[in-house]
Design goal:
Helix content: 40-55%
Radius of gyration: 18 Å
Largest sheet: 7 strands, parallel
Order of helices and strands: EHEHEHEHEHEHHHE
Strand content: 5-15%
CATH class: Alpha Beta
CATH architecture: 3-Layer(aba) Sandwich
Oligomer: single chain
Number of strands: 7
């Protein structure tokens, strides 16, 4: 049994749903009794997810940075789910590079996936939600969109854009649509493990007040709460889930 009765039978679409935060969130919404469909551009991961999670209503390949892919996938969503109630726009990429080593191709790719993808999916979702005059849109941003971090200038810029996209949509479509940005700090996802050595992870953990990375399922819990009627008065917000990382400079106090 799920925690939030009103999420039962809700039609939920999750981009970047084949791994990490997206997959954990998809599994959480299934546990809440929602009808879940995921979108991802990793065909191998999608096939794995489909065989391991037969309760998903669909696992569709698409590149969210391509308008034609997004349009086609939402038409497929119409035929499978008959529309949607909750969009979790989560697909994102990052590369670790000093600013002067970021070429325009990389910059454009990161912005296209992380920000253009959010714009394209939100537009398709709202076009459908406006007819029913109800819906929730949750965008995965990052604490990197709240404060600066070296070596991720393109990623940081995209996530700051995601936060203002959420706030702007929340104002434009209130009161019937709620839109929020979720800002995870360090989360132990496959993407994170690929970029960081165990030593780097340990060093990062020492600077987080709670001394660890988040688990993807902890971020999934926040998505479930914000999509539910328990969060009916929360909209237009950038909500950090970061173990205290953005609270201020941290150094452990001596006993």
């Amino acid at each position: 049994m799920g925690m939030y009765k009103d999420l039962e039978d809700k039609r939920v679409v999750i981009t970047g749903g084949a791994s990490g935060i997206g997959l954990a969130t998809a599994q959480r919404f299934v546990n809440e009794g929602s009808r879940v469909l995921i979108i991802d551009w990793n065909k191998e991961e999608l096939n794995k997810v489909l065989s391991n999670n037969p309760e998903f209503k669909g696992c569709i390949y698409a590149d969210v940075s391509k308008p034609e892919d997004v349009k086609a996938v939402f038409e497929e969503i119409d035929s499978i789910l008959g529309g949607l109630d909750i969009l979790i726009s989560n697909a994102g990429i990052s590369f670790r590079n000093p600013f002067l080593k970021i070429d325009y191709e990389q910059w454009s790719k990161v912005l296209r996936v992380n920000l253009d993808g959010m714009f394209l999916c939100a537009k398709e979702a709202i076009t459908r939600m406006i007819e029913q005059q109800s819906g929730v849109i949750l965008l995965t941003a990052s604490t990197n969109g709240i404060e600066g971090h070296p070596l991720y200038t393109d990623y940081n810029s995209s996530k700051a854009g995601v936060i203002l996209l959420a706030k702007s949509l929340a104002l434009e479509f209130a009161p019937w649509l709620r839109v929020n940005a979720i800002c995870p700090g360090y989360v132990l996802t496959p993407m994170q493990k690929a970029e960081y050595t165990p030593e780097m992870l340990e060093e990062v953990n020492s600077k987080i007040p709670l001394n660890r990375h988040a688990e993807p399922k902890e971020v999934a819990s926040l998505f479930a709460f914000l999509a539910s009627s328990e969060a009916a008065y929360i909209t237009g917000q950038a909500i950090a889930i970061d173990g205290g990382e953005t609270a201020g400079p941290y150094s452990p106090l001596e006993e």
